Amino acid sequence: MNVTVRTAEVSDWPAVWEMLRPVFRSGETYAVAPDISEHDARNYWLAPSRRTFVAEDEGAVVGTYYLAANFDGNADHICNCGYVTAAAARGRGVARRMLAHSLEAAREAGFRAMQYNCVVSNNLSAIALWKSGGFRIIATLPEAFRHPADGLVDAYVMWKQL
Ligand SMILES: CC(C)(COP(=O)(O)OP(=O)(O)OC[C@H]1O[C@@H](n2cnc3c(N)ncnc32)[C@H](O)[C@@H]1OP(=O)(O)O)[C@@H](O)C(=O)NCCC(=O)NCCS
């Protein structure tokens, strides 16, 4: 795969929603209402306070991520990201590429650290990826996530200095 990452355009939304919809509907990985409407999902993923990107492989959109300040005011030097790879493109390095891009974009924007607030503890592929990118678990939130199959599971706060 020759994955490139670029800023998302409004016209990318249908392709982005195709990737987000099954992820949100499953309720397995994001702290987002599983029945979120397309309108609300768009306002969430493409919020003006966020920079949103898409990953492309040979012209096809295969991934998306956002970058945003995780806190306001005097804590806005820590950022947050969310990543989704199209189901058909998983396991081929798309998220690894988006992670590298996001770390670079965050450093360029002047953020001092990146924090993921709610990494579901049974999302093993994501946890392995974040750890391999230098993130560590700095807190465990007991039973913070209601997983549709596994019930109440812990969630992790994962953090990396930039
Ligand atoms: C998590 C997610 C973004 C990973 O995307 P991806 O493009 O498939 O990931 P990559 O191909 O870049 O894999 C990178 C690393 O992730 C880990 N990984 C990926 N798939 C894995 C799997 N099935 N089992 C274990 N580890 C896995 C590995 O560490 C892998 O590194 P390697 O290729 O050197 O072994 C993707 O599965 C996804 O969109 N899931 C739904 C949304 C989600 O969970 N987002 C993250 C929320 S914290």
UniProtKB/TrEMBL annotation:
It comes from Dinoroseobacter shibae (strain DSM 16493 / NCIMB 14021 / DFL 12). Residues 3-162 form the N-acetyltransferase domain. It is an enzyme of class 2 (transferase). This is GCN5-related N-acetyltransferase. One of its GO terms (molecular function) is acyltransferase activity, transferring groups other than amino-acyl groups. The keyword Translocase does not apply. Its EC number is 2.3.1.-. The keyword Transferase applies. Keywords: Acyltransferase, Transferase. InterPro entries: Acyl_CoA_acyltransferase, GNAT_dom, Mito_N-acetyltransferase.
